[in-house]
Specification:
Elements: H1 2-25, H2 31-47, H3 52-62, H4 66-69, H5 76-91, H6 104-117, H7 138-164, H8 167-190, H9 193-197, H10 203-210, H11 232-250, H12 254-272, H13 277-301, H14 309-337, H15 339-358, H16 363-387, H17 395-416, H18 427-450, H19 452-459, H20 461-477, H21 483-488, H22 495-502, H23 504-510, E1 512-516, E2 519-523, E3 528-533, E4 540-550, E5 554-562, E6 575-582, E7 585-597, E8 608-613, E9 620-630, E10 650-653, H24 665-693, H25 699-715, H26 725-738, H27 747-758
Antiparallel strand pairs: 1-2, 2-9, 3-8, 3-10, 4-7, 4-9, 5-6, 5-8
Helix pairs in contact: 1-5, 2-5, 3-5, 3-8, 5-7, 6-7, 6-24, 7-26, 8-11, 8-12, 8-27, 11-12, 11-13, 11-25, 11-26, 12-18, 13-25, 14-15, 14-17, 14-18, 15-16, 15-17, 15-18, 16-17, 22-23, 24-25, 24-26, 25-26
Length: 760
Amino acid sequence: MSRVIAGLELVLAFASALFVVVGVSLFPEYQLILSLILIIYGGLLYCFPSLWPYVLVFVSVAVNLAPWTGRYVIDEFDFFIAVTCAILLLKYIRTSIEAPKTFVLPLAYVSLVLVSGFDSSWQEAFGPSYANFYFTDLNGLVVAKGPFWALMLTWLFFKQLKLSKGSAFSHLQYAIVLGAITLFVIILWERQVIPLLISDADIWAKLNKISDFTSAYRSTGLIAGMHTGGESTDGIDVTFLPFVFTGLLFAATKTRKVITFFALGGLLYCILVGFTRITYAASATSLIVCLLVYIFAKQREMGEVRFGVQHFIQQYWKLILSIFFMMVGTFGAYKLAGYYAVFAGGGVVFSFLLVNSLFFAEKVKRNILLFLVSLFYLGIVFDSYADSQWVQFNDNNTIALIVSSLFMLVASLHCFMNIKAPGLVKLPTKTLSLSFGYMLAAFVLVTAVGSARISIRAETTSQDYLGRLEHWTSVINSGEWSLNNTLFGQGAGSFPRNYAFSFPERINEIGYADFSGGKLGFKSGADLMIGQRIEGMSVGLYQLTLRYQGLENVNANVAICRRNLMIFERWAVDCNGEKVRLTGSSNGSTVTVNIENTKKESYLNLPSILTISSNQKDTFFSVNEVSLKKITGDEMILNGNFEQGMDHWYFYYNFEHLAWHIKNLYVSQFYQFGIFGCFLFFALYFLAIKNIESSGNNNLIKVALSGVLMGYLVLGTFGDPLDSARAATWFFIAMFTCQLNIKNGNNQERKDIEKDFTDY
């Protein structure tokens, strides 16, 4: 059997290598630099096998070339995974391990996904697309490659776990910590916070920019799949969060705690500015599950006979109640005094801890200092309340602020009045950790519940829910439900195509584009925008020329904008555009306009993009050629005649997302893979939870993986991040790892793994 597995691994290794060679050679841009980076990465990976999670996590969140290349079906993320598989399969080919019987289930599920979506057109995935890939069988490959790559990586991960006695898990965890920090920096760039931070603006302007939670813009990061909305970024957030939180729980040194705490705060910020209600709920569920599993595992480790939710509540109900009232009081104070109340609350926690630790035995001194700290807190919140431009100063609000402040202070006293001094050496770390932890938790709470944007979205919850029910009904109605399709589904990635065929009027309403025959067929609608990112834009005047044909008169919009994947607010920011009248001409015609670019090119700014759109419904025209030239005559457009189809072009839907996404994980699994697919998927879930529970003393693995599984169960009620390969890959790695049923034979082995985990 081992020889058969080794032979299969050899075939897969060479297939992966061939995949990279063919893919990079046919890539429309960055071929040389991609080749060099992949060769260097392969060499380093062979010498340092633990390198792969750091590279793949970074690439998944920070490298997405699709908006520049136009290639979405097969992209650079796939190349890096294929190199990883090729190198590690060859390196470990002589390492024989017995696959657990439970690994048959992931194999069966992935096989079903591949078979259900497979089509001979997949061979065209390496070349340019000449049609909207969502409406072709290539979208099946987009969906299928996530679980397929995850299966291969999990197998290699399993080998590393066996060889390294657990340190492989620590590398994965720390890679995700660094990935969370990277994602945080990207989100700050996307929200244009970084340019302001390095400017000479005053500190308050910088803080206001960071804490802007009123914008309608939902951050997407660099995940190209967000060009049609969806939950790609949310799926990555919910997968990363438990790993980062686990890293904080198990970090062994102050440096690691600080780094991980910063990563946790950054990731929570990313989640907050996504302004997605179900992601908030999924993240909260994930953190609560992680904390409970951690506490229960510690109780079991300490030999407590009784443990579980009921025992936990009985033991900690006073503490839970105190923290609850602290948060209630903080939220009430925040609504009237703003974020000053949150920061002042953190100061109270720090001061109460410090006073109780230093003066625990001296009750008089302690009480005096606690009283002075309370007065200081009240002074800050009431001063902020009195100076507020957004809150009316009246008796009712004053009374509400007094009550909220007392809630916070009394609950804090109850939490910390009995804490004994942990020792002067550890005191600063303990107090600062708890204080920052409280401020982070309070900041997240008040922002998630009380910010203007989420409040607006909360008001539309009932309306949105009814809209989702209507959408899911349309999803089911778009399929053909024969006995075979009921059992095995419509096929991976089939929904957008089926939806378009079943509801053409809806697609006509939002617009669609078709790149074929050396021209861009443009069916105008309410939300479609075609764009190309332009390198080397300078301040000055540009000449845009459109060669087009059509039978109708059409009002088109052309512009040079600074944007990422979704537009800021509902109106363009830093956009310079012109309205163009395209008169009907079956033989073709040309129109030329001048567009001024007013903002200097910088890597700190959002990229420049030429956009073409038309919100004049029920009209069709073809763009035969696009040219954008400097006054000097230099051409800025690549593939302006569309001979290479979608290469270098990308389309965007800023607000109309339902035509592309099912928006429910459970409906999606049934729709694509039928009853049999649902059975396999939920069998994977059941077995994963069972294996986590029976995984011996691997507390750190229990905590992280439990959080991922439970978070996704919640996220899946109103979203389906698994239609994104980048999100799906990391989720299925966690899911499939749970099937390995990793156990430790003795206590010493557990300690070795935990040491490896914290000594990254």
